[in-house]
Design goal:
Strand content: 15-25%
Number of strands: 29
Number of helices: 34
CATH superfamily of the largest domain: Hypothetical protein af1432
CATH topology of the largest domain: Hypothetical protein af1432
Structural class: alpha+beta
Distance between the termini: 74 Å
Strand order of the largest sheet: 1-2-3-4-5-6
CATH architecture of the largest domain: Orthogonal Bundle
CATH class of the largest domain: Mainly Alpha
Radius of gyration: 37 Å
Helix content: 40-55%
Number of domains: 5
Largest sheet: 6 strands, antiparallel
Shape: elongated
């Protein structure tokens, strides 16, 4: 029995090493005829090889065959006689003995059917042995690239083969061309396999591109299911190669002592049938899911399991069951939750990230809520709530092409301009309140930080010519390249030399540290490199070259002739020192990579990722798009702008997936943010000249606390919300259409106008205190706006429109006169007059939304009366109105500003008295701080479906 022990040992090893079908076929040397419920299924080798097998080590093979395939252990004499009879009859066939061939044989009720391909032509031939002689020889008008397969099932004869021209899968029933099906979507490698059990006929083939096993099943031999993919492993191969040996393997394990062939749906049987031995063993050991316990599986649960593409994702099921059990769910009490969770996870397109997020949500729910049992009054409602929670977790981001942003185009244009002038004249500097800023006499001012926040450098496209010129520009700036490039992967050598230089510097020097700080808008760490304008420009150009290289490597690995790409695993690992606030931001909604980000394909990550206190992030992708660039750390780089969605695992680590969704495109606000930075530096940060008004918080003196940076930022932020509100609910058709048709550029101009609205103030006086001085302040604000717009190249028409609106902003008689006073808006062109009226409304309401910081509820509500008077009332309108107020007050609280009017969850306003808090110092001194504070509130915007961004 040494031969048997060798086979069994090899099979058990194969279970660990995913032994392929063809390896297993070579391993089972003793197999000639395979038992099937209707007779024998027999793929044959060439005749001489077959005969040699019978005489080589015959005793050992007979012992093995008597147990596993040729001779049934229950009736060895009968089966042995039948085998000898079949073998003898094959030797009498004139066609069989005339030439070497490969084919298949099926035997049933003293009938033998053979099928093979004709030597030279590849045409399919068939012949049957009945009534003691060979007959019914046919030469079919079909050609096969490899030996065809044949089987008897449900009183029909089914053959399958691989076409010679396109390698398509072909299936024919009863040799009738009318019942021939060509599956042009499925290409095959080698011979298809036909096999059956009591209920189903299976056809299986190997995809020549990815070598996965594909399957379909039928109940009649005529109609076939959709195809599904199963893992190529030893048990699946054994299921088709030797059913008796297959059953012996599973029966010899203690977990399968009570296993019997099922007469109905059985989860463990499905796992075994489709090759997931580990899962089947686990389910039986932990949930007693043998034949006698199938009643535990209700129809909805079994339906969910049966839809899993023949348990293609069954490797995840132990994890799913274990996590549900850890969360407190019990199969016998919470079947609806199990069924819904499994149904949600059965989507073959659903990533490991999505499944983990779902299970995390259930775990978080049970940490707060007590789980009810079926007899409890609240059980039904809780089951409904949980299934809704699972459904919400199943939300999919829309995938699709992302438009190239204006900021990305601007960065490309700037890089080109750098090569056309003396780069030493370009000054790139860091300002604590707005990040990195470029100014030069030969080009317009350019805030790099705001541009990068709006750009997506996974779209960056630099020509080889421009890359070469940028390499020369770097040398002019004093950059010294790294000595050699031989440590990078061979694929990198297909890139331009300057790109190689940038990658080498990123991977093997400390340049990457400050380069990424620049891209994230953080100040330089001068222990790594200096913060001189020339060095900052070097870092920016190198970072752009690295991003461009990451983009190009995506295509080089698949298009470069002769290059064999490194096959990446499905997991990339990164370790980071993250605080709780950063983790929460990542969990709130998908984020875009703020800079080039390195991951490792090593299982535990690169060495530098394993620092004490670091948080591990894993990207789970079925087809990892980015190639490895260096082996030392297994480094894979992901470009700036790539979108990642995160969820947190029970151990505190993060799991992420690449999203690429148009729903997550960044706001188009570079122009208005740059305007606010300019206004703050030149006006809003200065003390009042007429009547100073300042406060000190945490040692920081804040000038103009009531009309400073934080207030101006909020009013600018409200503009798109106001536009969206009236675009949906205005009862004035003209105003509604105007709001709905505003472009991103139009909205940016309105935001810029909101920025300069109070820059001319020199005290806190109101129009009631001194109307003349108040109007003078407005005129000065309009002048500031005019200077800025003209400097930015804005059209005269737009300048005149916005200056007029800001000059009279808030005036009650702007669009219609009061008493004997005519309207202030008297433009002769009716269209322009309407345009100014509508813009004045939008900016006035945006300003009034922020009055909650300093006015009581009655006054606050009165200033927003048009939001109720000028709309069509309904439930959606009321909800949107409440959201406007809730968002404004929430943002004021986030900035820790003073507050006189609060709002509850039902939209009811109430008086309060809150003074400035310590966080207000950060909100009033840095635009970057304001942007960070605003991120959490933007999640609410998505949940309510209200457009805050200008996109």
């Amino acid at each position: 029995m040494k031969y048997y022990q060798y086979i069994l040992s090899a099979l058990r090893q194969g279970l660990k090493n995913s032994l392929s079908y063809w390896d297993l076929k070579r391993l089972l040397l003793a197999r000639l005829l395979l038992p099937d419920h209707d007779g024998f299924l027999a793929p044959l080798d060439e005749k001489q090889q077959l005969i040699n097998k019978r005489h080589d080590n015959a005793q050992a093979r007979h012992a093995f065959d008597s147990r596993y395939g040729l001779i049934d252990a229950s009736c060895p004499n009968e089966m042995l006689q039948q085998f000898q009879w079949v073998f003898n009859q094959l030797a009498t066939s004139d066609h069989y003995t005339a030439q070497p061939f490969k084919g298949s044989v099926v035997v049933s009720d003293k009938t033998i059917m053979t099928i093979w391909t004709q030597s030279g032509t590849g045409k399919i031939q068939t012949e049957s042995y009945q009534n003691d002689h060979w007959q019914n020889y046919q030469l079919l008008d079909e050609t096969s690239e490899s030996p065809p397969a044949i089987i008897k099932f449900a009183n029909n004869t089914i053959i399958s083969w691989t076409g010679t021209e396109n390698h398509w899968l072909n299936i024919m029933t009863n040799f009738d061309p009318k019942h021939k099906k060509i599956y042009t979507a499925f290409k095959t490698q080698g011979s298809p396999i036909l096999a059956s059990n009591q209920y189903y006929l299976f056809v299986s083939w190997i995809n020549p591109q990815n070598h996965q096993i594909n399957m379909m099943h039928s109940t009649d031999g005529f109609n076939w299911s959709k195809h599904y993919i199963v893992e190529s492993n030893a048990l699946l191969s054994l299921r088709f190669a030797s059913p008796l040996l297959f059953q012996d393997i599973v029966r010899n394990d203690p977990a399968f002592l009570h296993y019997k062939d099922p007469k109905g749906p059985n989860l463990a049987y499905l796992c075994i049938l489709y090759g997931n031995y580990t899962l089947a063993k686990w389910l039986i050991a932990n949930y007693s899911m043998g034949l006698t316990n199938t009643a535990e599986l209700n129809n909805s649960l079994f339906d969910s399991l049966s839809k899993m593409h023949a348990l293609k994702i069954a490797e995840d099921l132990p994890m799913i069951f274990a996590k549900l059990h850890e969360a407190g769910f019990q199969l016998e009490h919470h079947l609806p939750v199990y069924a819904q969770a499994l149904a949600s996870c059965s989507d073959p397109e659903k990533s490991r990230y999505a499944k983990t997020k779902l299970l995390n949500s259930l775990r978080q729910y049970t940490a707060i809520h007590k789980l009810h049992l079926p007899n409890d009054n609240d059980y039904a409602q809780q089951c409904y709530d949980l299934t809704q929670l699972i459904s919400d977790c199943g939300r999919k981001w829309e995938y699709g092409p992302l438009d190239k942003t204006q900021s990305t185009l601007r960065i490309e244009a700037f890089l080109l301009q750098c090569t056309r002038m003396n780069p030493q004249r370009i000054k790139l500097e860091y300002k604590s309140f707005c990040g990195y800023f470029i100014h030069c006499d030969e080009m317009s001012e350019f805030n790099v930080t705001f541009a990068l926040k709006n750009a997506n450098l996974s779209h960056l496209v630099l020509s080889d010519e421009l890359i070469d010129k940028l390499g020369k520009t770097l040398k002019k700036l004093g950059f010294v390249e790294h000595a050699s490039y031989n440590q990078l992967e061979p694929i990198v050598k297909y890139l331009p030399k300057a790109s190689q230089m940038a990658l080498q510097s990123y991977c093997f020097t400390n340049i990457y540290f400050n380069q990424n700080r620049l891209f994230r808008g953080e100040p330089m760490d001068t222990t790594y490199s200096s913060d001189t304008p020339a060095n900052l420009l070097i870092l920016f150009i190198l970072g752009c070259l690295v991003n461009d290289a990451a983009n190009k490597l995506l295509y080089l690995q698949s298009t470069t002739s002769g290059y064999v790409p490194c096959k990446l695993p499905e997991v990339l690992v990164r370790g980071e020192l993250l605080d709780a606030a950063t983790i929460n931001k990542r969990l709130n909604k998908p984020i875009s990579m703020p800079s080039i980000t390195s991951f490792s394909l090593f299982k535990e990550g690169a060495k530098q990722f394993n620092k004490s206190g670091s948080t591990c992030t894993r990207i789970m992708e079925r087809n990892m798009p980015y190639p490895m660039i260096q082996q030392w750390e297994g480094e894979v780089i992901i470009p700036h702008g790539e979108q990642l969605a995160y969820t947190q695992c029970a151990d505190g680590s993060l799991m992420a997936e690449i999203v690429r969704s148009p729903q997550l495109v960044k706001k188009v606000d570079e122009a208005s943010l740059s305007a606010l930075a300019y206004a703050y530096e030149n006006h809003l940060s200065k003390p009042y000249k007429d009547t100073p008004h300042s406060i000190t918080l945490k040692g920081t003196t804040i000038h103009r606390p009531n009309h400073g940076l934080a207030h101006s930022y909020r009013v600018m932020t409200y503009v798109p919300l106001v536009i969206n509100y009236f675009a949906q609910h205005s009862k004035e058709a003209g105003f509604k259409d105007y709001c709905a048709q505003l472009t991103n550029e139009d909205i940016e101009y309105l935001r810029i106008a909101a920025v300069f609205r109070v820059t001319g103030r020199e005290s806190e006086l109101s129009f009631k205190d001194d109307l003349k001085q108040y109007l003078l302040y407005k005129q000065t604000s309009a002048t500031h706006l005019s200077v800025y717009l003209k400097k930015s190249g804005t059209s005269d028409k737009m300048v005149q429109r916005l200056v007029h609106i800001v000059t009279h902003l808030g005036a009650p008689d702007y669009e219609s006169g009061i008493g004997s006073h005519p309207a202030l808006n008297q433009h002769t062109d009716q269209q322009e007059r309407l345009c100014r009226t509508y813009c004045h409304r939008i900016l006035t309401i945006a300003h009034n939304l922020d009055l909650a910081r300093c006015k009581d509820p009655a006054y606050y509500k009165d200033t927003l009366s048009y939001c109720l008077q000028g709309v069509t009332h309904n439930v959606n309108q009321q909800e949107a109105y409440n959201y406007l107020l809730k968002y404004a007050i929430a943002l004021i609280k986030t900035h820790d500003d003073s507050l006189c009017t609060d709002i509850d969850t039902n939209g009811v306003l109430s008086r309060c008295s809150k003074s400035y808090g310590s966080t207000f110092a950060n909100a009033s001194s840095s635009l970057l701080n304001l942007l960070d504070m605003d991120e959490d509130l933007q999640v609410q915007e998505e949940q309510h479906g209200i457009r805050m961004s200008c996109s």
